Amino acid sequence: MKKDPKVIIIGLDAATWTLIRPWMAEGGMPNLAKLMNAGVSGTLQSVLPPITPPAWTSFMTGKNPGKHGVFHFIETAPDRYAMNYANGGSRRSPTVWRILNAAGLSVGTMNVPFTYPPEALDGFQISGLDTPSANSSFVHPPALKRELVDYLGKINHDVRFLGFMSTDHRRAQVLAEMEKIDQQWAAVALYLLEHHPQDVMMFVFMSIDTVQHYFWQYMDRSHFLYDPKAEPRFGNAVRQVYERLDAVTGRIIEKLPNDTTVLVVSDHGGGPVVDRTLFLNRYLHQLGLLQYHKKGSGGRQGRSGLRKLKLKILRGAYSFLRNSLSSRQKSRLAEIFPTLRKKAELAYTSFVDIDWGSTKAFCSEVLASPPNVWINLKGIKPAGIVEPAEYSALTDFIIEKLRELKDPRTGKPIIARVYRRDELFHGPFSNEAADLIVDWWSEDSLFSTAPSLAKDRDKPAVIISEHRPSEDSVWGGTHRRDGILVASGPALKRGAEIENAQLIDLAPTLLHLFGVAVPKDMDGRVLADAFRPEFLAAHPVKAGAASGISESDRSTGYTEEESAKVEERLQALGYLE
Ligand SMILES: [Zn+2]
Questions:
Q1: pLDDT: which is higher, 471 or 282
Q2: pLDDT band per the 50, 70, 90 thresholds, residue 74
Q3: Closest Cα partner for 48 from 361, 268, 212?
Q4: 445-461 average pLDDT score
Q5: CATH code where residue 492 lies
Q6: In angstroms, how far is the first alpha carbon of the chain from the final one?
Q7: What is the 456 CA–ligand 1 centroid distance (Å)?
């Protein structure tokens, strides 16, 4: 007997009200507008820092990253300074999907980031962006993958050329691929609704995030990368993606019985990149906290010697990455760092020039470089020199110095807030986070970072980028904390706005919709404001036993074959000989 889905969640990665509201006022996004009128809506605060891996993982667990262990695309390795790539296997807390399954409800999820390898759910799971390749086992049950491929063709997660958009032609190609991938996922979602309905189903679309990163500058006349000549061609690129996914949302809703609860959520918002770049390791060097090797020491003189060394480093680094880096992550990196090859070389080169034995603090600049500061702590890091007794004063000093960084034009501080990790994270895995997390997502604390080369150690730590259109692929947009929430269903209020909703509240709220007890170790709360008072009165929130921690699946993330695929791609890109 065919079952009717009871709750449908549509994930629009990076969707933001700052764009949607004005478009809605002009009559755009009609399906989302209809859903808002029929239900509740509001801002959805993401986790900090508001990036995709911890955000969706917190959504799925109802917990802060200290309790699930996913902080970024990368994670520390215990015996080295370099970092590994994380995936869904790094999550160490049970998901809300498992809890729903245990309560007798079936669950199907499609393309949720950081769900690779897929969980063996009662229902199905199709992994998201951390999927290594189209040939990986990214669907549970495996027979469903064969069925989808038979009916709909090969499933692709990747948009190619992201790092190589040096011409209008390639930019147009990327937009066309984004559309193809959206239509593919829309077709998969509709097929699953028709042929594999589950009590709870979730469908995620990633292209808003991608298009905002690469095309924000074309719609924003005040942007430092604004290109008046390209505006006619790409000025509408971002809005077109929003409108397309609004139409997909409409097509999904059309298929549903009237009493289905529908949620539309984003894992964080988006906004423009600004023209300030901070060289964090350079600054730490200038503060006397990070030292580079003396030039010419250790037999590293001469061009060919240096070149050989660089190649060796690249090779060594990639051979350790081989076991953890997926092709999908690689293309995600191309997204993070548009000129990946150049940046990777720069990053490795700069990182290897650090003299660990006399360095107290550093930013990890290996490939993906979040503006975080790590303390070179004795007993924790391989060549740690900072005594535990010195930790507190040292971090105080760095926080103070980071807040002294000024925009050279206005004299105003660039960084408004620096968090110690225990201010943001609590739980058994908190100590895997960076020691200091620098706010780059708030309107009063906006900047980019770039790798610091040893040879440029005395140049200014903050530079202002030239205001002119860029010829290469660069990020014109980045993330902001506030995402979106729209929800409509029989238990929910109509046409109401809700305040202070957080991404971590959705797992408890989802459980409460089914009358399932909320594990007491979830950090989120049931969004009581969203429910009709009658429903709440009849269904008081139930607290349940802690969901606890679950075993890490890290060692089984990638197969030999997948690793070989990755190596092939790296070779094609010229990283490996
Ligand atoms: Zn995201």
A1: 282
A2: confident
A3: 268
A4: 89
A5: 3.40.720.10
A6: 56
A7: 33
354: CA distance to ligand 1 center in Å? Answer: 32
Task: Tell me the CA–centroid distance for residue 128 and ligand 1, in Å.
Answer: 11
Centroid of ligand 1 to alpha carbon of 448 (angstroms): 17
> How far, in Å, from the CA of 13 to the mean position of ligand 1?
5
Distance 70 CA to ligand 1 centre (A): 14
pLDDT value at residue 328: 52
Ligand 1 geometric centre to CA of 55 (Å): 7
> Where does the pLDDT of residue 537 fall: very low under 50, low under 70, confident under 90, or very high at 90 and above?
very high
Cα 52 to averaged position of ligand 1 atoms, centre (Å) = 4
Q: How far is the CA of 224 from the centre of ligand 1 (A)?
A: 24
What is the 74 CA–ligand 1 centroid distance (Å)?
Answer: 15
pLDDT tens digits, one per residue of 265-304: 999 999 999 999 999 999 999 999 999 988 644 333 334 4
Percent with pLDDT over 90 in the chain: 72
Q: Which of 472, 504, 521 is the C-terminal boundary of a domain?
A: 472
- 354 Cβ neighbours under 8 A, 6+ residues apart: 81, 281, 290, 291, 292, 293, 362
Tell me the mean pLDDT in the region 167-189: 94
Residue 249 binned pLDDT confidence (cut-offs 50, 70, 90): very high
Residue 12's Cα: distance from chain center in Å?
Answer: 12
pLDDT of 324 = 43
Ligand 1 centroid to Cα of residue 485, in Å, is 14
Q: In angstroms, what is the span from residue 577 Cα to ligand 1's centroid?
A: 34
* Dihedral sign from CA coordinates of 359, 360, 366, 369: negative
Q: Are residues 136 and 264 in the same domain?
A: yes
CA of 21 to the centre of ligand 1 (A): 20
How many Å lie between the centroid of ligand 1 and the Cα of residue 338?
A: 17
Q: 210: CA distance to ligand 1 center in Å? A: 9
Residue 59 has pLDDT above 90, yes or no: yes
Query: How many domains are there within the chain?
Result: 2
pLDDT tens, residue by residue, 360-396: 999 976 544 568 999 999 999 988 999 999 999 999 9
Whether the CB-CB separation of 427 and 71 falls below 8 Å is answered with no
User: Which candidate, 470, 29, 466, 477, places its Cα nearest to that of 219?
Assistant: 477
Closest CA to 119 of 205, 188, 202: 202
Domain C-terminal end among 425, 447, 472? 472
341 vs 56, which has greater pLDDT?
A: 56
Q: What's the Cα-to-Cα distance from 347 to each of 76, 201, 314, rounded to whole Å? A: 16, 41, 10
* 323 and 453 share one domain: yes
Residues spanned by the domain of 380: 276-472
| Strands of the sheet with 276-278, listed across from one edge | 448-449, 276-278, 462-464
